[in-house]
Design goal:
alpha+beta; 51% helix; 2 domains; 2-methylcitrate dehydratase PrpD; 21 helices
Length: 453
């Protein structure tokens, strides 16, 4: 097939566990672990609790595990609810070139369908790789224009990713995979309008991506056709959803490198655009104790997209706090972290946090713009009342492939998040299944450990 979708579908359907490089397999396991950690902790948020209630009310079926619930629901409802939970804390992975979050769109749908179809670890791994591959390529082909138009890539490109991943599990041939991707394109949705009032809608985008992707894959399997030129057609995804695009990026270097290897891990519970600034502030804080009464002002310099997107100070809800760089910077200074507790009401409404936010200003830096998207850096300058000026530069936030942190960081993060729900013995069993995923014959061996039964 000559369409971009056709070339992508041919590559995806040809993926095999046996042909994947060892580092790609290991990365897929880490992405699975990271997403599940976010989902377990996210299940306790308001978003997660509502999602579980809705899934249980909508579905009489008992096909797939609903994370931290006592029973199962239908495969579509499981993908929806588990995807919402995974995205609820802003601690899920991402791709800086695609400008979105592949894990929350891919992993919940893969696990839900794999459980329903009784698939094993050697099938789950390439399915995950397929989802990340499509997310990275389709997202990079349309961004940054797609993002600048107000589209949330996690919801839009995530639908393509989920269709590819679950289509792989259903063993779609290239022709039917083209239809699955075409059908995904007509369901791809997600708008940044939630930024205006801090509503919960952002997490719905992740859940719907997984849900709609599975629907697209099943429809295609049964012979329902989708447009072969969904990406590049004059009425296709890129023309409709971006002012400028690079469609050839979708197929450039297919098989030469895997998009999953560009995935970053998040170590702060806030928008990724705030992470380099937060890392810079924490670097200063680790060197010199900081107190509110000693601080005259704080200037944060970062790339223009970040400055414009999260430079505001209107914080009324947890999500608006996560999307505010001044808020994240303030709690980083006062609390020494930007974690789960820092977005609870007692911190959101803390007088000292609010007072410090008013001293923090965010500015675009043209020099940092020149490095985007390969590097999304920041510079923090803290002016003290005694006349000292404290400075830190960060080129790549912790968790980027260029600054991955230590080997144990991702495990420590998982244990911290999973520990909000389970005790150590259960956590160790989950980790053992993930680390030896290729030996798991039925994915229910893993998913059964994610319930509260």
């Amino acid at each position: 097939m000559n369409s971009l979708t056709g070339k992508l579908a041919a590559f995806i359907t040809g993926l095999k566990y046996s042909s994947l490089p060892s580092e790609v397999i290991q990365k897929a396991k880490h992405c699975l672990m990271d997403t599940l950690g976010a989902a377990l902790a996210g299940s306790k948020t308001a978003d997660g609790i509502i999602a579980k209630k809705v899934a249980e009310k909508l579905s009489p079926k008992k096909e797939s595990t609903l994370i931290t619930a006592k029973g199962k629901v239908g495969v579509l409802e499981a993908a929806l609810a588990n995807g919402i939970m995974s995205h609820a804390l802003e601690l899920d992975d991402g791709n800086r070139y695609a400008q979105g979050h592949p894990g929350v769109a891919t992993v919940p749908g893969v696990l839900a369908l794999a459980e329903k179809e009784k698939k094993g670890g050697k099938e789950v791994i390439p399915a995950i790789v397929a989802g990340y591959e499509v997310f990275g390529r389709v997202g990079a082909g349309g961004n940054p224009s797609h993002f600048n138009r107000g589209f949330h890539t996690t919801g839009t490109c995530g639908t393509f990713a989920a269709a590819a991943a679950t289509g792989w599990l259903l063993r779609l041939n290239p022709s039917k995979m083209v239809s699955a991707l075409g059908l995904a394109g007509s369901q791809a949705a997600g708008l940044f309008a939630f930024m205006a009032d801090g509503s919960m809608t952002k997490t719905l985008h992740a859940g719907k991506a997984g849900m709609n992707g599975i629907l697209a894959a099943f429809m295609a399997k049964e012979g329902f056709t989708g447009p072969a030129y969904i990406l590049e057609d004059k009425f296709g995804f890129y023309k409709a959803c971006a002012d400028a695009s690079n469609p050839e990026r979708v197929v450039a270097g297919l098989g030469e490198k895997y998009e999953i290897m560009t995935t970053y891990v998040k170590y702060h519970a806030s928008c990724r655009h705030s992470h380099a600034p937060v890392d810079a502030i924490l670097d200063i804080r680790n060197r010199i104790p900081l107190r509110l009464e000693d601080i005259e002002k704080v200037n944060v310099y970062t790339y223009t997209m970040a400055a414009k997107f999260i430079g505001g100070k209107d914080v009324t809800t947890p999500i608006s706090g996560k999307m505010s760089l001044p808020y994240s910077a303030a709690v980083a200074i006062l609390c020494g972290r930007v974690g789960l507790a820092e977005f609870k009401p007692q911190i959101l409404n803390n007088r000292d946090v609010r007072a410090l936010m008013e001293k923090i200003d965010v500015y675009p830096d043209p020099e940092l713009d020149k490095l985007v998207p390969d590097h999304r850096g920041a510079r923090a300058e803290i002016f003290l009342k005694d006349g000292r000026k404290l400075i830190s530069h960060i080129l790549d936030a912790k968790g980027e492939p260029e600054n991955p942190g230590t080997a144990s960081d991702i495990y420590d993060k998982f244990c911290l998040l999973a520990g909000t729900v389970f005790k150590a013995p259960r956590i160790e069993r989950i980790l053992e299944k993930i680390e030896n995923l290729e030996k798991v014959k039925d994915i229910s061996e893993l998913t059964s450990l994610l319930t509260t039964r």
